[in-house]
């Protein structure tokens, strides 16, 4: 059995032939339709978010600037300086230097703590692997996306900055909104 | 004698002042209205609701460098924007804002009532393109050159149709003076009997101002910026200003020749307000069209000008002549 390929092909919509009275009508008609469209946008109003004053709310799962956590009851850091986050980081932007806890200087809940914990935000790709790798949920991704600064060196976030509450909270969108 | 001279000086200053104040208004209106038509807000940072945006623009342009390329003809490049601005202002001088005897009489709300008003308008309209053509050519850059060549071709194609479209008005009014033309529209605006002429004038007017959809001399997408590619600072600002002045001039001529000029309801003292309103509405139409229509292709521009507008304009003149002779 042979099939004619012309039957299978989608019909070509070529549009009307150019020229003639019909063309004049089309040119002016379509021009007027275009004018109506643009005027319709004026009547409809704008869709602008005035950014610095008005912020786009983010979803709760949005991966923004990282946060380091403490235990709420004891105030000890959750991070034990295991460097698993640094190992998981594809961008190699996390630097951890661990130190031993001593009885008179107990920083974290485990044996060791992170003496240095730095994230280079200019390298970070916000993939969230550090959060997945962490066995103690010590590091999570926050919601803040306003991370610009004047110097690259200012974008290296230290442990104190990551432990502290962000200066401004990004508005959250409810799930399903 | 001395009184007449003083009146002329006062008129020149007032025309220049009013005209220069209208340009930032149109500029702001252009940006705001076009923003709204594209579902944006437009500039709103400088001053309340962005009303000082034109001032900020001009200050920025004033503080910028006026660069001259090594291949340019410096003196010619310098006078080109001057030509553009001067011709636009000179045309504004003949646009009447009121009859001779309004506001106490004795002066008349126009610069001069030339008996060859329409010819004067065409003369300066053609001269205005010299600014564009000379500016692009003397820049010594390929893109500027292409832009100025396009400007020259566009002028030749559309000036003819524009002249013929206004010929119908001149024939109906029996005069070339703009004041006479307005006074002839006492009973009926010329847009009714000369509707075809008005449509042709509108299209040719858009082409004459070199604004969208006929902004081929500028054509920022394909020839970088056309004739003003090499211009910077206030020289570019002058071209920019001249473009908006041209918009006002074309709106003014359209209002005078087709929409009854200063005629409108209310006492005669309101005449200049009606004229101003008509000019501003014309400018709004320019902005509206600019936000709507894409730029024409070059061959479309040419074939539209020569194959459609010119025969249509000729036919319009012929029909008007027959009707005038028959009645």
Structure explained in plain terms:
- The complex is a heterodimer of chains A (177) and B (327).
- With 177 residues, chain A is an alpha+beta fold.
- Chain A has five helices and five strands; from the N terminus they run H-H-E-H-E-E-H-E-E-H.
- The longest helix of chain A has 25 residues, at 20-44.
- Chain A is elongated and about 95 Å long.
- Chain B is mainly α and 327 residues long.
- Chain B has helices at 2-37, 53-62, 74-92, 117-138, 142-173, 178-183, 195-209, 233-258, 271-292, 298-326.
- In chain B, helix 5 (142-173) packs antiparallel against helix 7, helix 5 runs parallel beside helix 10 and helix 8 crosses helix 9 (271-292).
- The termini of chain B are far apart.
- The model of chain B has no long low-confidence stretch (mean pLDDT 84).
- At the A-B interface, helix 2 of A face helix 1 and helix 9 of B.
SS-based structural class of chain A?
A: alpha+beta
Net shape of chain B: globular
- The first-to-last residue Cα distance of chain A is 55 Å
Taken as a percent bin, the fraction of beta residues of chain B is: under 5%
Q: What does the overall shape of chain A look like?
A: elongated
Strand content of chain A: 5-15%
Listing every helix as H and every strand as E from the N terminus to the C terminus, the arrangement of chain A reads: HHEHEEHEEH
As an assembly, this protein is heterodimer
Global Rg of chain A: 29 Å
Q: Total number of β-strand segments of chain B?
A: 0
Strand order of the largest sheet of chain A: 2-3-5
Number of helices of chain B: 10
What topology does this entry show?
The complex is a heterodimer of chains A (177) and B (327).
Chain A lengths: L4 H4 L11 H25 L21 E3 L15 H5 L5 E7 L11 E9 L8 H5 L5 E3 L14 E2 L1 H5 L14
Antiparallel strand pairs in A: 1-4, 2-3, 3-5
Chain B lengths: L1 H36 L15 H10 L11 H19 L24 H22 L3 H32 L4 H6 L11 H15 L23 H26 L12 H22 L5 H29 L1
Helix pairs in contact in B: 1-8, 1-9, 2-8, 3-4, 3-8, 4-5, 5-7, 5-10, 7-8, 7-10, 8-9
